[in-house]
Amino acid sequence: MSDTILEVRDLRVTFDMYQGAVQAVRGVSWHLNRRETIGIVGESGCGKSVTIKTAIGLNPVSSGSVKGGEVLFEGTDILRLSEKERRDILGNRMSMIFQDPFTFLNPTMTVGRQIMEVYLQHHKASRREAREKALDILRLISLPNPEENLKRYPHQLSGGMRQRIMIAMALICEPAVLFADEPTTALDVTIQAQIVDLMNSLKEKVDTSIVLITHDMGVVAKMVDRVYVMYAGKIVEHGEAQTIFHHPRHPYTWGLLESVPRLDEKTQDDLPSIPGMPPDLIAPPAGCPFAARCRFCMGICGREAPPEIRLTDPEDGRDHTASCWLCHPECIARNGKTEWRAAHD
Amino acid sequence: MTENKAPLLELKNVKTVFKVRQGLLKAVNGVSLSLYAGETLGLVGESGCGKSTLGKTIMRLYRPQEGEVRFEGRDIWQYSRREQKAYTQMVQMIFQDPYASLDPLSVIGDAVAEGLDIHRLAGTKKDRENNIMALLHDVGLNQSHVDRYPHEFSGGQRQRVGIARSLSLSPKLIVCDEPISALDVSIQAKVVNLLKKLQRENHMAYLFITHDLSMVRQISDRIAVMYLGSIVEIAPSEDIYSKNRHPYTRALLSAIPIADPTVEKSRKRIVLSGDVPSPVNLPAGCPFAGRCPYAQEICRTSQPQLTEMEKDHFVACHRADEMALME
Asked: How confident is the model at residue B1 (pLDDT cuts 50, 70, 90)?
């Protein structure tokens, strides 16, 4: 992995509501390298969708909700582009696959027209060329009978096929970055397996980097190179997928991994779960946002937010950070290292 | 395991059919199964396989075209008026979407007590109040929530309200139609744990409908796998995972990603091509033949019947004997 194609720096997003300002994203930084897939995981309401919607420019500074930070795509700040400049990038150099293929396709247009529309928007091309291009992309994603299916309306297609159409629309301009917001959550497991395989193979064929948002740790294990774990508007842990699954250091990551039942393991009596609820982001707690739900909570956790602590990875020495006082050198010196004992270790 | 006991619920060759423009849609196409008191039967399948229709057929919401549904030995379509009402008390349902299944204009207390009110079980106002409070306590909701409206709750909390509603009439059977699929993973675990706890305390049976093969293992005693309106395999829970015989069960299991990148890389998988075919005008033969990697001539001409391969382990596959040898 080499150069960075997209970088988010200290992003802050706040939405004004009747009850007060909701601090949805509270200082998030991440980067995406060329030909890499990163995963952003977390429970609903942790700010993961807001982060990528802002990163793709759907939530520009002019909307007033972005309170700070920058999103650098190939060196330019997406948040501060003019409307026209933004449109040139959106759907062309960066595109997005949404969760629900049932609501994001236009029911009154054939899928062929919808795919071609994206291409015609960004290229000076004839309709014939656009149609050729659409057929190419449908063959690439191995949709059966592409010529027939171009003439169909969304309601005539199954869920898996609609999600393929969404992927075709996102890929027709060969974007450098593809955002996928829970791309398989609405699909059946066998169809999910097809879509995951498809996205993995496309990364090579189209030369795209992928930002994947999901709460399914299984899909993360199949697709992702690096993982960012988000909680209450912040990144609490980041590392290579191997590291996050085998040597996680943040108690929230432990909880997330424990609550996923695994097919290759015997059942326990009760599934472990994380007690309590995520904090209210109108008035986020002063200390660590996870303190109230954490079984390792110490005195300092309630008072002061933990810094991002760099950890060396026992496997390969690659980047691994966790925002948790348990990882602080002073805490380790005093109490020893708190390790996660997973059922399968 | 429960041969000497009479089943609580018994389905015999049930067919639920809908008329559509293109012909007849056989959503449930000849299902026979039994459910015993206090047991959890998991019903697993992809969308469109007829699992929800089967659940609603059991609820007496759809009338099957053929076959019969027997509850405690009596056909539910032979019931008198009074028996019908008693049936709605003994059999309850938990719905998939906790956002759509609660009335936004009714406070939680009234929503929970609706069943009590309809069946006039509450007695005095004080009794009603006590009942509601006990139910909220059982499902782990704060009793001060009784005056709140559904929009003030999170998805997990709303699902708890749905569970409290279904418990209010002390049913013998609860049909849970995808009760956890709309929830976050960490909340899913909590709801499953709650359902298990309530079953230990109240000894009711669950029909647990889901498409999630990893979660259903946590709660089920037996699991039935459904495909295109037919049950293709039914066995004690652990057998479905370790001794499965049907190619569709295997494909379903192998499609689920495991949350471990190392395991995931070394895993052999069966990826099914294509989609589930339309249940309108079903072909003759095995419903799975079109997508099955092991299909032979016989699979396309005659439909395999559920056969007991081992104790309590039934498979509908012409090649079930060979499947046991293939790993």
From this structure: very low
Contact check, Cβ <8 Å, A261/B217 = yes
Which burial class, exposed, middle or buried, applies to B69 when counting CB atoms under 10 A from its CB (0-12, 13-18, 19+)? buried
Q: Any idea which residue has 């699929």 for tokens?
A: B181
- How far is the CA of B272 from the CAs of A189, B106, B226, B293, in angstroms? 10, 45, 16, 8
The angle subtended at Cα B43 by Cα B321 and Cα A271, nearest 5°, is 105
Residues A168-188: tens digit of each pLDDT: 999 899 899 999 998 887 778
Structural domain that includes position B172: 9-323
CATH of the domain at B78: 3.40.50.300
Check A246 against B262: CB less than 8 A apart: yes
- Name the minimum distance, in Å, from the CA of B46 to any CA of chain A: 6
Residue B1 within a domain: no
Which of A271, A274, A294, A315 best probes binding to B when mutated, by most B CB atoms within 10 angstroms?
A271
State whether residue A185 sits within 8 Å of chain B by CB: no
- Mean pLDDT over all residues of chain B? 89
Closest to A215 (Cβ–Cβ): which among B184, B253, B263? B184
Q: Which two tokens stand for residue B255?
A: 């499609």
Whether the CB-CB separation of B19 and B184 falls below 8 Å is answered with: no
* Chain B residues lying within 8 Å of A193, measured CB to CB: 254-255, 257, 269, 271-272
- Closest residue in B to A158 (Cα–Cα): B275
Q: Please give, rounded to a whole number of angstroms, the shortest distance from the CA of A68 to a CA of chain B.
A: 29
The residues pairing with B43 across neighbouring beta strands, listed in sequence order, are: B209, B224
pLDDT for A339 beyond 80: no
Q: Which positions ≥6 away from A175 have C-beta within 8 Å?
A: A91, A92, A93, A94, A95, A206, A208
Count of residues in chain B: 327
For helices A111-122 and A159-171, angle between their N-to-C axes, nearest 10 degrees: 10
Closest CA to A306 of A225, A249, A243, A263: A249
What are the angstrom distances between the C-alpha of A332 and each of A117, A199, A300, A302, A340?
Answer: 57, 41, 14, 18, 14
Prediction ipTM score: 0.76
d(Cα B155, Cα A47) in Å, to the nearest integer? 17
- Map residue B313 onto helix, strand or coil: strand
Residue B4 domain flag: no
Measure the CA–CA gap between A256 and A277, rounded to whole angstroms. 13
CB-based contacts of B197: which residues, under 8 Å, 6+ apart? none
Query: Does A344 lie at the interface with B, CB-CB under 8 angstroms?
Result: yes
For residue B144, tell me if it sits in a domain.
Answer: yes
Buried b (16+ CB within 10 A) or exposed e, B285-306: bbbbbbbbeebeeebeeebbeb
Specify the pairing of strand B91-94 against strand B74-75: unpaired
Asked if the structure places residue B138 within a domain, the reply is: yes
In chain B, how many domains are there? 1
- Residue A218 to residue A232: CA distance in whole angstroms: 22
Residues 6+ apart with CB under 8 A from B147: B107, B108, B109
Q: Can you state the angle between helices B125-138 and B108-118, rounded to 10 degrees?
A: 120
Q: What is the mean pLDDT of chain A?
A: 87
The Cα A67–Cα A11 span in angstroms is 8
For residue A245, give the chain B residue with the closest CA: B260
Per DSSP, B1 falls in state -
Tell me the per-residue pLDDT of B42-59, one tens digit each, with 9 for 90 and over: 999 888 888 989 999 999
Q: If you search the block for the tokens 């942790």, which residue do you land on?
A: A46
